[in-house]
Amino acid sequence: MVIGFIVWAVNSLINLYVFLIVIWCLLSWFPGASQSSLGRFLNQLVHPYLSVFERIIPPLGGVSFAPIVAVLVLWFAQRGVQMLSLLVR
What is the pLDDT of residues 12-21, one digit of tens each? Predict the structure, then answer.
C-alpha cells in the first residue's frame, strides 16, 4: 500500500517536471517570455537540471537537444521506479 503511494507520488512529480520543461521550452519561442515572472520562475526550476545536459550535448545549428535528452532520462527513471515497485510486491 505504501509502495504504491510512493510510486504514484514519484511518477506524478516526474510528470509535473516534464510538463515544466515543456513549458520552459515553449517560452523560449516567444521574445521576452523568458524575462516574465513565469519565465524566471521556470528557469530557476528547470535550468539547473538542463544545464547538466547542455554541458554534455552542444547545440546543433543553434538548437539545443538537451531538453529532449533530459526528458528521456526522466522517462527512464520513471520506468525504473515502476519496475522496482513490481519487484518489491
Answer: 999 999 999 9
Distances (CA, A) of 5 to 1, 10, 82: 7, 9, 12
Per-residue pLDDT of 34-81, as tens digits, reads: 899 999 999 999 999 999 999 999 889 888 899 999 999 999 999 999
CA gap 31, 40 in Å, rounded: 14
Q: Is the pTM of this model over 0.85?
A: yes
Q: Which three cell numbers stand for residue 39?
A: 519565465
Report which of 82, 80, 74 is spatially closest to residue 15, judged by C-alpha positions. 74
Residue of 76, 33, 38, 68 lying closest to 50 (CA atoms):
68
DSSP letter (8 states) at residue 34: G
| Residue type for position 65 | F
Q: Which three cell numbers stand for residue 77?
A: 527513471
Per DSSP, the three-state class of 89 is: coil
